[in-house]
Amino acid sequence: MHGGNIFVCVFLFFRLFRLFALRANFSSLSLLLLLCFSIITKNTSQNLISSYIMSLWVDKYRPIELNQCEHVNASVANHLKELVKDGDCPHLLFYGPSGSGKKSLVLALLSTIFGPGAHKTKVEQKTWKIDATSTRKIEVDLMTQSSNYHIEINPSDAGYKDRYVVQEVIKEMARSRPIDAQGNAGYKILVLTECDKLSKEAQHGLRRTMEKYSSACRLILIADSVNRVLEAVRSRCLPVRVAAPRAEDIEKVLYDIAAKEKLTLPPQLCSKVAVFAKRDLRRAILALEACRVANYPFKETQSVQTTDWELYIAQIAAEILAEQSPKRLLQVRGRIYELLVNCIPPTLIFQTLCFYLSKRLDDEMKHEVIRWAAQFEHKLQLGSKAIIHIEAFIAQFMATYKRKLISAFA
Amino acid sequence: MGGEEEQMDVDHQHHAHVQAKKKEPWVDKYRPKKVSDVAYQTEVVSALEKAMETHNLPHMLFYGPPGTGKTTCALAICKQLYGPELGKKRVLELNASDERGISVVRGKIKSFASTTVGEGVPGYPCPPYKILILDEADSMTNDAQSALRRMMETYSRVTRFFILCNYVSKIIDPISSRCAKFRFKSLDGGTMHERINFIAKGENLQLAEGTLQALEHVSAGDMRKAITLLQSAASLFGPELTGDRIREVAGVIPDEKIEELLQLCVAGDSQKSQALAEDILKDGFPCLQILEQFGYYLADSDLLEDEMKAEICLKLGEVEKKLVDGADEWLQLSHCISIATIVCSTKPEK
What we know:
The structure holds two protein chains of two kinds. Chain A is α/β, with parallel strands linked by helices. The longest helix of chain A has 24 residues, at 386-409. In chain A, helix 1 (3-21) runs antiparallel to helix 2. Chain A is 55% helix and 11% strand. The model of chain A is unreliable at 16-53 (pLDDT under 50). Chain A is built from 17 helices and seven strands. In chain A, strand 3 and strand 4 (150-153) form a beta hairpin. Chain B has helices spanning 2-23, 26-29, 42-53, 70-90, 102-114, 142-154, 173-176, 189-202, 211-219, 223-237, 243-250, 255-267, 270-282, 287-300, 306-324, 329-345, and strands at 60-63, 91-94, 130-134, 159-165, 180-183, 206-207, 240-241. In chain B, strands 2-3-4-1-5 form a five-stranded parallel beta sheet. A two-stranded parallel sheet of chain B has the order 6-7. In chain B, helix 6 links the parallel strand 3 (130-134) and strand 4. Residues 1-21 of chain B have low confidence and may be disordered. At the A-B interface, helix 5, helix 8, strand 7, helix 15 and helix 16 of A face helix 1, helix 10, helix 13, helix 15 and helix 16 of B.
């Protein structure tokens, strides 16, 4: 992690901490920690931060209206505008890789339907009391972000109770249906993020609720991978594919931001950042901001700082390639643990490790790396202890690699 | 003043009515109302019509692929027998989104099945039994199904069961042996074109050349899917539709990309093929879709020997299973492409 960016995070953390300290309970604290961490890793998309004090560029320059989507997703935005022009919208399902602008499109869509009021959001820690069966009551705590017109939740935070949450929220929204008056659409919108992480039961529960309450409540589902959304749910929504922006488009956005921040951005650096971003706009903007903090005026030769966990994984990969022995495996294990306790998702570790390993290998070994990574990552999904599977992958790779080295020199 | 208000009220109602009309899914709007209107299932329709003449229906089991008219047939029979009013009392429809565990079978279904019927209404045949429709019955547990078997016999005098499912093999034997079975077959292109044209006319859509073919291709005989796609495309793109727009809504990858991917694999260029695969993934296409289209193309391609095709297809199947388990898309796709490249580069010698 870069020094400047850490500073930003720490600063944010303390401001937020003071805000929350008044009603400090441990769950909100731990949530905060997680939140700050999500900034470091990937997800800064929470408006949460922007609505409080200061904002990262990612939030500051998020398009507010569909009209403002110029360089990225322009055609999708136009179609959406067409779709909601008479104030009505069907259930929608946005899907696409992370950093492609799904959330931005949704927020812009909301303000197109409801006007600027949709951006006045408040964050709440809500508790739902739900009758699971006639004898058992369960309580679910969940962070919601809502305006007068919409509620946004990430139901997968509720773990195995997600199914109750989804249904309860929709029912509650249906009960307090807004009056169909001037300037009011007569329905509210429920935004469910990461709905591909919803359990099967929750998704099954959704399908009926979606139909039953569709007059009072429209759903906008956001998913990274549409595979994990049930066909039955998918067929009830209008699917909107959001493609990740290409490097050219990212460059345009970066120039725009630089102009608004009154910075001069040399083209070489710009294209370097765009390539570094791997078609992820969020990554690109964060990287640009990190560059700004590190060094301004920009130099053309300035390097783009990789995030610290990525460097860490690159190091692990180098260590694995340098020596293949039980002793080294043990060392690497400690490092993997370090990553896991810092909440780096195991799948991401697999991907990054795979990327850095295969960078230095010939074609034949590349196939092997991918093969084993795919196999052990799959097992990881079936199992529960991430460390075992990652370690198994590394051990397998070491064995295969060593064997190959020996046969090459023998 | 009063008049004005009234006028406004009427306007408002009219507005609401129009909105409700507009929102209604076309699948429901254009659902055939009579059994005889159900397209393409000629054998089933003629058998059903004969049975309906006698007003005495057996328990029935409809099975076949999705979107072929099973639910439509069941609903149409109910409508024709009871009319709209009595239908509400005499028919209970449960589908997979309703809770249908064993407790529901013992409670709700039993209480519905065991009550005797009331008076009929004039103008409709109104035979003296009720109808219970169990839609998507293959998602019921075996226990729940077993709980049904005795019920079907005990209450057969007052209740007929219509069981609808995709796979007859998922219905336990004792149930299927108690029913008259009807198989619904996948729709052919002609029937589908006719129906789509009819809907397009009703909704004032202009279908460009190739739209029908695209719909037929993408939906693969599933009428409901075709109509839903048509409606989605119309609400997203407006009334002028083309094949490309249909494909866009369906999330189908352009054929050229898949072809290029296959060619790169055959050429043995693992770097480029991996890059292209990742590119398609980044464009937001789901991995399963890529694999499906890849497999489809592969089967038709003459670039490869049959044995090689078989080997790759085996891998595709394996990977599909892993994806369903929730494995990472990028890793699995890379794996698949790498296998394809390996298989292609080790060409068997003749």
